[in-house]
Amino acid sequence: MSPRGQESGSGAPPSPPPRPRKKKSRLRALLLRPRLLGCAGILLLAAAGIASVYVFLLSREIRATFEGRLWTNPTRIYSGPMRLHVGQSGGPAMIQTRLDRCGYTRIPADPRAPGQYRINGGVVDVYAREFMFPGDPWPRRHLRFVFRGGRLATIVQLPEGRGLRDVQLEPEPLAAVFGKDREERTVLPLAAYPKTLVNAVLAAEDQRFFSHHGVDPLGVLRALWQDARTGQVVQGGSTITQQTVKNLYLTSQRTLGRKVREAVMALILDASYSKERILEVYLNEIYLGQRGSNGVCGFGEAAKFYFGKDVQDLDLSESAMLAGLIRAPAVYNPIAHPDRASARKNLVVEQMREQGRVTKEEASRATARMPAISRGLGGGRRAPFFIDDVTQDLAKSHSGENLAEKGLRVVTTLDGFVQDQAEQALARGLEKIERDRPKLVKRHKGTHLEGCLIALKPDTGEVLAMVGGRGYATSQFNRATQAHRQPGSLFKPFVYATGFETGRVDSDEPFTPATILEDEPFMMTIGGREWSPHNYDEDYRGTVSAREALEGSLNVPTVHAAIEIGLPKIVEVGEAAGMGSDLKAYPSLALGAQEVVPLDAAAAFTIFANGGSRVEPYTIAAVLDDDGKIIQKGHTQARPVISPQAAYLTLDLMRGVVNHGTAGSLRGHGIGGDVAGKTGTTNDKRDAWFIGVRPNILALVWVGYDDMTETTLTGAEGAVPIWEDFMRSIGEADSDERFERPEGIAFEMVDPETGGLATGGCHDTVEEMFIEDRLPGDCPIHADGVFKKFWRRLFPGKERQAEAGAETRTDASKGHPHERQIE
Fold first, then answer.
1. 182-368 falls under which CATH superfamily?
2. Which of 562, 701, 734, 813 has the fewest CB atoms within 10 Å, i.e. the most exposed one?
């Protein structure tokens, strides 16, 4: 038996066969390891490539923003400066309203910094801010205004104590033309920010800003510790660099992906730009509150909004309060929540003390002081009808993109105080009319009486105030610039001015204020149809002088005058002055039957106050770019229409309208000084007008319904009281200024019955004004004494003709289609 057999038969289990050696598995492992390493390397390279591309794209995005235009700055529209002079009517409230709207802060003590003021009885102390007015920078200065007896008694510049005759306060913000962002921002270089503000921001938001590389892990841990220790969120983990990235490039969405992207971009931004540049952008970018629908962004804007100051004038307490806003502007708004704002301010000051940025004594003073808060009124949209007109003019020379983004500054001609009074006077006047005439309101149920008021400087054309209706929210239709209404008797001065300028059509005899005109009903045929004018009061005086006809706004004599002067000449003068375009030479033109825009009518009347020359109204004084360079300047040139002498004669006749004519109530109510004017009432009393002129201001008032229905008002009843109220409210109830009389004006005695120069035989004489080389002839009745007077009584020619004319009187409603009976 073989050993194998013995062994197998011994009963022991057989031993397992030996395992084969795994040569192939080891070989595969050796072969796979480089492949894995290679794949890993490839993946790493791919990741690095992707990361590089990602970083490159982010870097390009960052550079494109940082090296381009970071912000879209709106065009800001300002009023003109507030002009104040010794002797001006008014009181402290007049200045206070302006200062509040300019964002000044009222304090109980003497003003210590620009942007502050104090009122103590009749004394107003103002520390005026610096302002770059077009071509004339105004330095900051301390001014004192003293009022006595309802007038500005003295103006003193402190501390020198130098008396001033007049002064101007800075323009007030009226509106802004925004793009999609609707952010208000004053962009400043880093050097313009005071050290106290920079330190306050660093202490509150990122104390290691100048040490980290855009992301600060220690800052995150420190913020978590401070929050846990105080039980409230007092520090954020984001650095100033991260906040800048989020504000400029990212949304506020709280996701891990957004935080990673923010961190990467912060690292890139820190590596690409200096700390100073990043901080400068942050200080200009950060959101710090809300003014209406507009965001208040950057500390330059916030300083003016909350404290009425330029940023460089902020003290430690104010700087800390602004820095405290960053965390939650709505929560710590010092206007709405002063207690919260004060507590937050004190916390920031304490952080500054702990970090060694202020001394203990400085911190104590800052925490003990509550800054004086501005009322936050500056920057609200005002004078909306006026602003609409300004923006329309701007759009003619500037693109919408430039207006919304390029930070232009537009200084207008508007006087904020005059505008306020115009709005209030019109509203009061219309309300009083409706209150006093309930039947009128009932007849026009659901429709309000409307009106407009325009004030301008007659010598320059600067529009000082424009009110296009009683409520912009109700209707944006600007009646001052868009309405086309019949002027009625408002047109009559242009008839007489033409006569004084050109004389009569068929006579060498000059037309003068003493010229005698018939005042009896008469009929004329126009275009195959009969037309007969009649006086508003249905009273006829036989004959009147040209002066009496205009003062009493008599229709019949004015039509006679127009025919004597020549209708084509009146059309020429009326169009040149601006009392309408494409005027027709119908007799009713003399009575204002053809339409005019109110602003054009106001400008047309400047010829009487401006030596016969019309000035074009304008609203934009200057446009400056964001560097303060003037790129557009508003002005107007006077365009001669009639001679200075003819203009002055007409002006003097309009003085009579106020002294004892249709606007005589003004003198009865105490309106003094040199003032001329003209009322106007149209057919069926659809329009009530008054234009009053002083040497330094011209104001127009129109009252009517938009649907041209009857108002039951004459110009004297509807428009004159509003004009009077307005002039009183702006301190122009009385004025020492007088219109300058040109050379070539003569004063002569005339016989009022004939209009001729008085002779020794004239029993009744009056003094009249003439152009020197256009004097009338001697009195035709009394030139040869009593005989001529007797002869005229025997042969009353004209009287007989007037009586005959009365028999042929017809109703005006049967007149020519273009002829409408006007007061």
1. Biosynthetic peptidoglycan transglycosylase-like (1.10.3810.10)
2. 813
pLDDT tens profile 723-778: 999 999 998 988 889 999 999 999 999 999 999 999 888 889 999 999 999 999 99
How far, in Å, CA of 196 to CA of 357, rounded? Answer: 9
Q: Which of 183, 205, 768, 823 is catalytic?
A: 205
The SS3 call for residue 78 is: strand
Note the pLDDT of residue 245.
84
Tokens describing residue 184: 């208000």
Q: Is 52 a catalytic residue?
A: no
At residue 494, does pLDDT exceed 80?
yes
Q: How far apart are the first and last CA of the chain?
A: 159
Residue type, 213: H
Closest CA to 609 of 817, 713, 459, 805: 459
Q: What CA–CA distance (Å, rounded) separates 142 from 127?
A: 4
Nearest to 332 by CA among 319, 347, 343: 343
pTM of the model: 0.82
Domain residue ranges of the chain, discontinuous segments joined by + = 80-171, 182-368, 488-742+810-814, 745-802
In angstroms, rounded to a whole number, what is the distance separating the alpha carbons of residues 351 and 344? Answer: 11
Across the range 376-397, mean pLDDT stands at: 84
Instruction: Please give the DSSP secondary-structure letter assigned to residue 694.
Output: E
* Per annotation, catalytic residue among 79, 319, 489, 545: 489
Contacts 24+ apart (CB under 8 A), 136-142: 138/168, 138/170, 140/114, 142/111
**Is 601 within 8 Å of 636 (Cβ atoms)?**
no
Is residue 601 within a helix (H) or strand (E), and if so which, with residue range?
A: helix 598-604
Report the pLDDT value the prediction gives residue 31, as an integer from 0 to 100.
52
- CATH 3.30.2060.10 is the classification of domain 80-171: yes
Which is it for strands 116-120 and 105-106: parallel, antiparallel or unpaired? Answer: parallel
| Distance between CA atoms of residues 355 and 784, nearest Å | 109
Residues 595, 608: Cα–Cα separation, whole Å? 20
Mean pLDDT over 628-644 rounds to 90
What is the tens place of the pLDDT at every residue in 74-83? 888 999 999 8
Question: In the Cβ-directed half-sphere of 533, how many Cα atoms lie within 13 Å?
Answer: 31
Higher pLDDT, 39 or 494: 494
- In b/e form, how buried is each residue of 596-625, taking b as 16+ CB within 10 angstroms? bbbbbbbbbbbbbbbbbbbbebbbbbbbbe
Active site residue 423: no
pLDDT band at 792 (very low <50, low <70, confident <90, very high): very low
Quote the pLDDT of residue 8.
Answer: 41
Residue 822 DSSP class: -
CB count, 10 Å around CB of 151? 13
Q: What is the pLDDT of residues 230-263, one digit of tens each?
A: 555 444 568 998 888 888 877 666 666 667 778 8
DSSP secondary structure letters along 151-165: EEEEEEEETTTEEES
d(CA 820, CA 297): 59
**For residue 132, what is the enclosing H or E element?**
strand 131-133
Architecture of domain 488-742+810-814: 3-Layer(aba) Sandwich (3.40)
- Which of 312, 105, 87 lies closest to 193 in space, CA to CA? 312
62 vs 446, which has greater pLDDT?
446
CB 329 within 8 A of CB 288: yes
Number of Cβ atoms within 10 Å of the Cβ of 334: 26
When mean pLDDT is compared across 439-443, 606-610, 814-818, the lowest value belongs to 814-818
Interacting residues of 140 by C-beta distance below 8 A, sequence separation 6+: 114, 127, 128, 129, 130
